[in-house]
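Hey, I was hoping to borrow your eyes for a little while. I've been staring at a protein lately and its backbone has me curious. You're getting the sequence in one-letter code plus the fold written as tokens. Would you mind checking whether the tokens look sensible for this chain? Here's the protein in full, and shout if anything looks odd to you:
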Amino acid sequence: MQKDASEKALAPERLAQLRELVRARRVVRLQEICRELAISTATARRDLEELEKRGELRRVHGGAVSVESRLEEPLFDDKTAVAAREKQHIAEAALELIKPGETVYLDGGSTVLALARLLRDRTNLTVVTNSLRAASELGGAGPRLILVGGELRRLSQTVVGPLTRAVLEELHVDRAFMGTMGFGTEGLTTTDTGEAFTKELVMRRAREVVLLADSSKAGKILFARSGRLEQVNRLITDKRLAAEWAKELARRGVKVQKV
């Protein structure tokens, strides 16, 4: 049987090449590894498994991420402090969309959390959320609260993954207020596949999807796609969003509201 060209090299050399590829790109898909190193899928998987055992990368569905990639997603409290004024203005604009008697979904994320804090005195409202932080804000004498169950993602303090389907597929919401780590022409993105799964499922269950994202998220593309731009009805953002992005979003049917 003919071996891959790269397999002619010593295994340590091949592993070093793979390690550097993942470190440089931070997120690498399996197809990229096979193409760049001229190796088979089976060899790539074996090498990824070996490097994961050594603690030099982390395997994810369809590829691998650098162990340093965790630094691409700041701690939640750090994210809350970034563009705090803009996030508050975005949350206040989102509040104006919510009507008495509605059912709304609150995603994870610091901007959506700012909205949750504005809902603490709203009693004629049902809130569905996968965010433990939002649930904590609304756990008193506020709106009716439905907390989605599933696997806890500690970094964002959200419940994510396929187990969330059991609740979400039984519900319809009037509006889903979504956060994102980034968005581009290919859609919304995040660093976690479980989080992406839950976000995309929520958007299919909402009459209106409202994306709450400051302008720094525009053009930022991460590992896992969590939805298409065409699934978003409205973006509430700050005034610094570039005109070309506003134009592209409008072309995709997204109403852009700068505050």
Summary: The chain has two domains: 5-71, 76-258. The chain is about 35% helix and 25% strand. The two ends are 63 Å apart (CA to CA). Residues 11-25 form the longest helix (15 residues).
